[in-house]
Amino acid sequence: MCLIKSHQKYCDYDCDWSCSRGCKKCCLKESKCCWYIYCCVIIILLIGAITIILTFPNYNSTYTDDCKYGTNKTTICICNKFYTLDNKGECTIKLKSKLTATLLQGFFGFVGGGYMYLGMWIRASIYIFGVLMFILIWYYESKFQTNLGIGYIIMLCLMVILLMWWFISVFLMTNDTYKNIDGNALSDF
Fold first, then answer.
1. CB distance 21 to 13 below 8 Å
2. Quick one: which of 90, 88, 113 has its CA closest to 102?
3. Do residues 100 and 57 lie in contact, with contact meaning Cβ atoms separated by under 8 Å?
4. What whole-number distance in Å separates Cα of residue 125 and Cα of residue 113?
5. What is the value of pTM for the model shown?
6. Beta partners for residue 2, in sequence order
7. Which phi-psi region, left, alpha or beta, contains residue 184 (left: φ > 0; alpha: ψ -120 to 50)?
8. What is the per-residue burial (b if ≥16 Cβ within 10 Å, else e) of 50-78?
9. N or C: which end of the chain has fewer CB within 10 A?
10. Are the C-beta atoms of residues 179 and 172 closer than 8 Å to each other?
11. Which phi and psi (to 5°) does residue 57 adopt?
12. Tens digit of each residue's pLDDT (9 = 90 or more) over 55-64
């Protein structure tokens, strides 16, 4: 419990994600708790971004006239990694990385990062719409404190659906379920 001297108001809540529920300036302990949460989230997202950058596919392969991005073995082209055969039998189609897609969905799946990478814009926009709805309902409930509970029930249901879809999509990406927007399988690298 924390007493604010200017308003003589008591805050009887523990540190939560909103950090401002009930009163504007509360105990120093509670405001520090919120900064720790923000810093941890930022550090996790930075580690995820660095990991994804390090695993992003390197398309710098040697180019030849007969197979493009591959080597000619008798009459068949063997493609370099991150490339596959097109209709003419040449290695010109760039593949997306399964590892990069999985890491993007794992770290930035709350906005559909893996789906954006694979070119599945409709699925990614559903994620973004769901997160925006969650934020808007959270803001409305915390700002006006309606205490109806309907907003919180909608937020809880939306959060459960988004989290389940997020975890299932990461699992499916690791098991070769998804393909890129062109229908090509993901590269194992």
1. yes
2. 113
3. yes
4. 10
5. 0.71
6. 11
7. beta
8. ebbeebebeeebeeeeebbbbeeeeeebe
9. N
10. no
11. -60, 140
12. 888 788 788 8
